[in-house]
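Design a sequence for this backbone.
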C-alpha cells in the first residue's frame, strides 16, 4: 500500500509455470495447522510469472527496480531477528523507472540446489520461498510464496539389525531385536522381545517412538523431546522363556527423515524407547537411535532399467542390449 494512502500502488501475484500439474503436499505451519504447498525436489527448476497489477488505472507507479528471489533459510525461534540463509538467488525483472500499466514478468531459477528438507519444529523452521519485490523510496511492495522441499534417499543393502539387552542383576534379563536400523517413512518395524530372566513383577511394557529436536550450539543448546507414537507390547506379567513379536507400522505417524547437523544449526533424530513398568510403578528404559529416510517414486522409478545399464558396463554389448530392452519392457 502507499505510505500516505494516495498515489499509485500495486498488487503482486506469483504463479508457477507448472502450477496445474505440480503435486501439492500438506506441511505443518508454525501455528500447528496444516496447509498445502507445491512440492519440489533438489535440482529441480523453479520458474513462473510475476504479475504486477496497478490498483489505480491512469496513474503511474514509480519504482527503484523489480526483482524476484529464491531463498532457503533457517529461523531459530529464540533468535528471531536473525534468518540464516543457505540459498539466496536473485533475478532482476525490471530496472528503475515507471509503470503506466499492469505487467507480467517471466522468471526462471534453473536446477536450483535445495539441500535440506522443509521442516517446522518446536524451536526451528527451515523454509524455502519465492519473494517478489517492487523497490520504492518509502515502502517496498513484497509478496512471498512458500514451497515445500522433500529430500529423497537410497540406502545401501547393508542395514544391520539392532540387538540390545535390558538387565537388572539377578532380577531381570531381557533381549530385544529389531530387523534393521534404517527405516523409510512408510516402513514397518519388525522385532521380537525375549524374556530370559523375570524375577520382578512387570505389569506393562510399551515401545515409544521419540523425536528429539536439537537447536543451537555450545552453551545455547536446546533439546525438545516429542513422543510420536506409543505401542503397547503387553499388559500383564511375562514368564521366563516367553517371546513377544513386534510389528509397528510407521506410515500412520507424522515424521520427517532424520536430519543431522543441518547447516550447523539443528538436528532431528528418532529413537525407539522400550519402557517397562513394574507393579510398584517403577519405570525401566532402554533407548536406541534409528535412522529414518524418505523413499520416493523418483528413486524407485526404473530400477530394472538402471540394473540393466549397470550390467552393460561389465558384460558384452550383445547380452546387455537384450537386458536393456527387457528392462524397458518392464518399465512400460
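Sequence:
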Amino acid at each position: 500500500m502507499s505510505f500516505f494512502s494516495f498515489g499509485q500502488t500495486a498488487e503482486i501475484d506469483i504463479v508457477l509455470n507448472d502450477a496445474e500439474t505440480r503435486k501439492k503436499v500438506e506441511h505443518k505451519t508454525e501455528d500447528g495447522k496444516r496447509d498445502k504447498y507445491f512440492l519440489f525436489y533438489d535440482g529441480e527448476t523453479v520458474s513462473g510469472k510475476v504479475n504486477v497489477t496497478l490498483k489505480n488505472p491512469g496513474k503511474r507507479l514509480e519504482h527503484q527496480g523489480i526483482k524476484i528471489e529464491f531463498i532457503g533459510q533457517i529461523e531459530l525461534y529464540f533468535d528471531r531477528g536473525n534468518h540464516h540463509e543457505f540459498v539466496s538467488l536473485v533475478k532482476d525483472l525490471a530496472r528503475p523507472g515507471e509503470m503506466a500499466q499492469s505487467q507480467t514478468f517471466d522468471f526462471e531459477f534453473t536446477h536450483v540446489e535445495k539441500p535440506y528438507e522443509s521442516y517446522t519444529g518446536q524451536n526451528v523452521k527451515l523454509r524455502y520461498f519465492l519473494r517478489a519485490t517492487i523497490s520504492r523510496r518509502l515502502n517496498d511492495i513484497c509478496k512471498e510464496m512458500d514451497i515445500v522441499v522433500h529430500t529423497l534417499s537410497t540406502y545401501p543393502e547393508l542395514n544391520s539389525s539392532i540387538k540390545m539387552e535390558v538387565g537388572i542383576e539377578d532380577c531381570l534379563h531381557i533381549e530385544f531385536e529389531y530387523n534393521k536400523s534404517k527405516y523409510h517413512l512408510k516402513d514397518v518395524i519388525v522385532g521380537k522381545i525375549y524374556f530370559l530372566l523375570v524375577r520382578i513383577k512387570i505389569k506393562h511394557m510399551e515401545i515409544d517412538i521419540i523425536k528429539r529436536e536439537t537447536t543451537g550450539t555450545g552453551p545455547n543448546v536446546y533439546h525438545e523431546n516429542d513422543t510420536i507414537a506409543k505401542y503397547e507390547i503387553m499388559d500383564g506379567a511375562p514368564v521366563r522363556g516367553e517371546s513377544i513379536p513386534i510389528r509397528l507400522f510407521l506410515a500412520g505417524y507424522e515424521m520427517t527423515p532424520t536430519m543431522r547437523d543441518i547447516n550447523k544449526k539443528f538436528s532431528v533424530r528418532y529413537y525407539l524407547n522400550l519402557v517397562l513398568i513394574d507393579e510398584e510403578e517403577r519405570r525401566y528404559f532402554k533407548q536406541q537411535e534409528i535412522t529414518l529416510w524418505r523413499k520416493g517414486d523418483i528413486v524407485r522409478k526404473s530400477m530394472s532399467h538402471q540394473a540393466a545399464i549397470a550390467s552393460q558396463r561389465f558384460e558384452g554389448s550383445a547380452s546387455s542390449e537384450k537386458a536393456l530392452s527387457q528392462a524397458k519392457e518392464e518399465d512400460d
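The two ends are 54 Å apart (CA to CA).
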